[in-house]
From TrEMBL:
Residues 9-163 form the Nitroreductase domain. This is Oxygen-insensitive NADPH nitroreductase. Belongs to the flavin oxidoreductase frp family. NCBIfam families: PRK10765.1. It comes from Halomonas colorata. The gene is nfsA.
């Protein structure tokens, strides 16, 4: 493995951060590294909100389900899918813009995720730790109001950023045989059952707290009930009509 592959395979979510600040110059470099990600048709349909206000961070921590590390990390970023900038630019160029298409929602969301992952990898290459915060979608309208997000912009996820104050183990991933299929989709239940055993061993031995569970058991809360059923109406209200 070269150093890049080794880095990508060593990712952990960091939830405890030291008091060491992240230099502003480094933060700019990370954002520029994020901009180097692939983007559909060069649309660059994303905006990043650097939340510096301590009270706002405390509020977002509560809105995201009481995730205190949002307030305690060195920097907190909110990655937003942004179709406002490109559609308005297209209008200024003379286009008769059609807004609210499902493809626009997909493009903006994918662009944002690719850009954020570049930021994450760049940050880890500099010794920083990160933790994605999907919990901001628990209360996306309140987060949008707090950050003064306009129509056609929505918060996809947050990211805690800072120097790690703990060293959690790398969480196992599904075996590649379950993910990589040749020519056609094929059944992978045997690999999943084996992975459940792997995850059970991991959860019982990890340093950050033991529990008796496995991968399949951990998925139950995500699919037992409707997950964030408010998101469809919220996105429509944001201008992403999914036409």
């Amino acid at each position: 493995m070269n150093d890049v592959i080794k880095l990508l395979k060593s990712h952990r979510s960091i939830r405890k951060f030291s008091d060491r600040p992240v230099a502003h110059e480094l933060l700019i470099e990370l954002i520029q590294a994020g901009q180097g990600a692939a983007t559909s048709s060069h649309v660059q349909a994303y905006t990043v909100i650097h939340v510096k206000n301590a009270a706002n961070r405390e509020q977002i921590a509560e809105l995201a389900g009481g995730q205190s590390y949002i307030a305690s990390c060195a920097d907190f970023l909110v990655f937003c899918a942004d179709m406002k900038r490109p559609t308005e630019a297209s209008e200024r160029a003379g286009s008769n813009v059609v807004r609210g298409m499902t493809e626009q929602l997909l493009v903006a969301t994918v662009d944002t995720a690719l850009m954020a992952q570049n930021v994450a990898t760049a940050a880890e290459s500099e010794g920083l730790g990160i933790c994605y915060i999907g919990g901001i979608r628990n209360n996306p309208q309140a987060v949008s109001d707090l950050l003064k997000l306009p129509e056609h912009v929505y918060p996809v996820f947050g990211m805690c950023l800072g120097y790690p104050a703990h060293e959690p183990e790398v969480k196992p991933r599904l075996p590649v045989e379950a993910i990589l299929k040749e020519d056609y989709y094929s059944d992978d239940s045997a690999q999943v059952q084996a992975f459940d055993d792997t995850m059970q061993t991991y959860y019982q031995s990890r340093s950050s707290g033991n529990k008796h569970s496995d991968w399949s058991q951990n998925l139950k809360p995500l699919f037992d009930n409707k997950l964030r059923p408010h998101m469809r109406d919220f996105l429509i209200e944001r201008g992403f009509e999914m036409k």
